[in-house]
Structures are given as structure tokens and as C-alpha cells.
Amino acid sequence: GENVEQHPSTLSVQEGDSAVIKCTYSDSASNYFPWYKQELGKRPQLIIDIRSNVGEKKDQRIAVTLNKTAKHFSLHITETQPEDSAVYFCAASYGNQFYFGTGTSLTVIP
Amino acid sequence: DGGITQSPKYLFRKEGQNVTLSCEQNLNHDAMYWYRQDPGQGLRLIYYSQIVNDFQKGDIAEGYSVSREKKESFPLTVTSAQKNPTAFYLCASSPGTGWYEQYFGPGTRLTVT
Predict the structure, then answer these.
(1) Do B42 and A102 touch (CB under 8 A)?
(2) Looking at beta carbons, which residues of chain B come within 8 Å of A91?
(3) What pLDDT score does B107 carry?
(4) Mutate to test the interface with A, among B104, B108, B109 (most CBs of A within 10 A)
(5) Which residues contact A12 (CB under 8 A, 6 or more apart)?
(6) Among all residues of chain A, which has the CA nearest to that of B57?
(7) Helices and strands counted in chain A (H then E)
(8) Which residues on chain B are in Cβ contact (under 8 Å) with A33?
(9) Number of C-beta neighbours around residue A65 at 10 A
């Protein structure tokens, strides 16, 4: 089955700096890569996703890049704000199942 | 936060007892999922269902059972055969499988002593 690895497990940045979270996947059949944000005590919510026919997608301060050859994808958050502090999960999917990374706890220091 | 609900938010049980976690959605979604979340391990798939009266095992289905008698409902039973049942359980739904966003419920924290 698919194996998704996510790094780093924790990340601290100063407010206004950028944050980058990286994920790798093992199954070349995976074709959908969502990123979820989970605030403390709340449910995960989708923040951005990318399909395998696209190399990059951007939504305001958030961007995701995908390298199918290397089987890795990354989340980029620019101009970080304290409300960006949360746990972020990447996932890889094909067909019926989603495989999640182990999460990155991001802390934005004011 | 409406659309997919789970109850209760916190659940306490004695070891050896079966317990059923509720998941309901009014989004008219075909697919529903159950995940288990443990610290440092992300979300792991227990069961999923693409249509009514059909469901498939995920990676960690042992000790769990589900049913999908109605499109809106996908209850999860944690049986006494589950070796380490204490965890945070998340239910999700999506319009279909494949390139669809999953919508998560608020979760149920189960503690078994």
C-alpha cells in the first residue's frame, strides 16, 4: 500500500516568515494530494489540494508544489500569522483510500 | 460546522465492553470513512463505505465493525477484541471517491479503562 512520510514533525517560525512542510509518497498511482489543517481540539479542514496533472497551485498565502518524478509534494505558507499555528497533515490518494502523513505541528511566534 | 456530526464527544468504557460511535451526515455524500488518530501517528483508516450496504476494511480494521444501512449514517463499533481502543476517532464523508475533498466530523474521544 501507499506510505506517506511528512517532515518536519514540529516547526517554529517567527511571524511574517515562511514555513515549508514536505511529504513524500511511495505509490506512483496516487493522483490527489490534499493538505489539512487541524487546530487544537477541532476537526481537520482542507486548506489546499493538488491533482497529479498540475505541478503547482496557489491560494493567497498558501501554495502547494508537486514533483511526480521524485514523488514528493510540499506546502508553502508565506507571511505566517499566529492563527496559522496548528497541525498540518498531508495525504495521498488514489481510488478509494487516503493515506495521511504523521502531521507537522506549526507554531508561529508573534 | 454543520453537515457531519459525531456523538458523543467524549466516551468512557470499561475494558471488555463493546461501544458504538455515531456518525451522521446530511451532505448527501456517497462515501464515508472512519479514522483513528493517535499522537504522532496521523490519521489511520479503519473502514470506508462507498455506497449503502457496502463497506471495505482499511489498514487497521481488526477489532472494529461498521454498518451502512442508510446513506446518512455510518456507525462504528469498537469491540472488546480491539487491543488498544483508547484514541480519538474521526468520521469523514465525501461526494465520491478519488479526487474529492473529505469533510470531517468533530470527532469522538474514547477512553477505555
Answers:
(1) yes
(2) 43
(3) 95
(4) B104
(5) A106, A107, A108, A109
(6) A97
(7) 0, 11
(8) none
(9) 17
Query: Which residue from A minimizes the CA distance to B1?
Result: A43
Residue B1 has pLDDT above 90, yes or no: no
Distance separating alpha carbons of residues B34 and A72, to the nearest angstrom:
26
Express the helix, strand and coil content of chain A in percent, nearest 5 each.
Answer: 5, 60, 40
- Name the E strands within A15-67: 19-25, 32-38, 45-51, 56-59, 62-67
Residue-wise pLDDT for A40-96, tens only, equals 888 999 999 999 888 999 999 999 999 999 999 999 999 999 999 999 999 998 877
Contact with chain B for residue A74, Cβ under 8 A: no
CB A2 within 8 A of CB A35: no
Strands B43-51 and A104-109: unpaired
With an 8 Å Cβ cutoff, is B10 touching chain A? no
Tell me, what's the pLDDT at B2? 58
Specify the pLDDT at position B92.
95
Distance (Å) of CA A97 to CA A20, A43, A107 = 25, 19, 30
Q: Nearest by CB to B59, from A1, A43, A93: name it.
A: A1
Q: Do B23 and B31 contact (CB within 8 A), yes or no?
A: no
Q: Please tell me if residue B53 touches chain A, with a CB cutoff of 8 Å.
A: no
